[in-house]
Here is the input.
Amino acid sequence: MPPVSGFTNGFVVQEFVPGRPVTEMELNQLLLDDIARYSAFLKRSFPACERMSFEEFHGMAARNIALGLGEDWANKAAPLERMRGVYEDFEPIELDGRMFPFEWIITPKGYRKTDCLDHHLDQFFPACQDIAWDLAMAAVEFEMNPMELNYMLSSYAAASGDTVGGERFRLHLIAYLAFRLGYSSFAAEELAATPEGPRFRSLAHRYASRLKRELLWLAD
Here is the structure.
């Protein structure tokens, strides 16, 4: 991130960095390594004093699954209730919360992460959470295949000394998908008469499809 040169009207002033946003189709080993190193940096550098309760975290996921997919799918999510220990075993950090492809730009000097400050303080989820939330978000938004996901998580473990996988990763993956399903469904309804409405409806279908796959795996 370029150094801060000042503040004005509530905004941070920084040097302009020439580049363009990447897309999920451009994911490669270099970008996976940068995502892993960046996540390790967050884990090391920004511990949080507290996190939301498991009841609030689980309640968000359960509510969005029930509203977005129906009660039959909500029943398949019942095993999440037994993951309190998984949730509480790992320390929260001040997350990035914006691991979308378009928040990464490709520059003449490599990849740069943008829009990375203070999202843990805004009125939306995730607030302060386990780094597994950001890693799950990156996996979903970059549409990583199993090989890419395993590489990212292995690179993160090598850079941080922290292993994210198993129930820890799946809990945050399902919660992230449920959150985005709720967010995009609400946006699609509110913006139905605008050009943004169909785009959010398409996103909602995408999150719903992936969430169903994860819930089927969870229920087995």
